[in-house]
Amino acid sequence: MHALLVEDDDRMAHALGTALAQRGHTVRRVGRALDALRFVHEAEFVLLDLGLPDLDGLELLRRLRTVCGAPLIVVTARCEERDIVQGLRAGADDYVVKPFRMAELIARIDTVRRRSGPAAAGGDRPAPPGAPVTVGDTEIDPVSRTVTVAGGEVRLTRREFDVLAHLAARPGEAHSREEILDRIWGDAFLAASRSLDVHVAGIRAKTGRPALIRTVRGFGYRLGDGR
């Protein structure tokens, strides 16, 4: 598969590029945000450093997400919780802090690509079967991958929609954290499991319906009544 590597450090870019090539991937490396926006349309997955010389990496991430649905992993030295939360909310599928072990990063890439599906490179994914689910004035359509609230469309990130659609597929059930992490992230014991809470908070905030997802204390989440 073809990777877009957005990294301005030559040594890090060489190490990442070599590791990806050894896995059979082709790589286009760029060191500037403007070049990332120029070439992202051809990428099947993206590795993004946040410390770029011409634009803040989080702002670039937001811009990339408006034009690209490919799986994207942030690989950065920024390790503050605020940065991690902002990166995930802006649309990153995973967040890896430097320094890291290359084998772990490759495993995370494989997991994100597997869960995102091969069609994600073009911004579309195979539509899951099922009729739209209506909760109060909120409609979740798994086929068109859209969410509307009071008749207006709400834009969720791909991962946020996946979480919401998973809960909506069996609306009467409570889903454990481990089940959701395994289904959406591919790892029930993912170290970054707090990203699930970040995505749930994002869904609640963007829809303006905090009761759309109910917390089952000590267990996980379930679809709420939407009020």
UniProtKB/TrEMBL annotation:
List residues annotated as DNA-binding.
Answer: 130-225
Q: Which residues carry this modification: 4-aspartylphosphate?
A: 49
- A GO cellular component entry from the record: protein-DNA complex
- CDD domains according to UniProt: trans_reg_C (cd00383)
Q: Which domain of life is it from?
A: Bacteria
A Pfam family of this chain: Response_reg
Location of the Response regulatory domain: 2-113
Among its keywords, does the record have NAD? no
Q: Can you give the residue ranges of the OmpR/PhoB-type domain?
A: 130-225
Query: Keywords on this record?
Result: DNA-binding, Phosphoprotein, Transcription, Transcription regulation
Positions of region (Disordered): 116-138
Q: Which GO terms describe its biological process?
A: regulation of DNA-templated transcription
Question: What InterPro entries does this protein map onto?
Answer: CheY-like_superfamily, OmpR/PhoB-type_DNA-bd, Sig_transdc_resp-reg_C-effctor, Sig_transdc_resp-reg_receiver, WalR-like, WH-like_DNA-bd_sf
Transcription regulation among the record's keywords?
yes
Molecular function terms, GO-annotated: phosphorelay response regulator activity; transcription cis-regulatory region binding
Q: Which PANTHER family match?
A: DNA-BINDING DUAL TRANSCRIPTIONAL REGULATOR OMPR, REGULATOR OF RPOS
Q: What is this protein called?
A: DNA-binding response regulator, OmpR family, contains REC and winged-helix (WHTH) domain
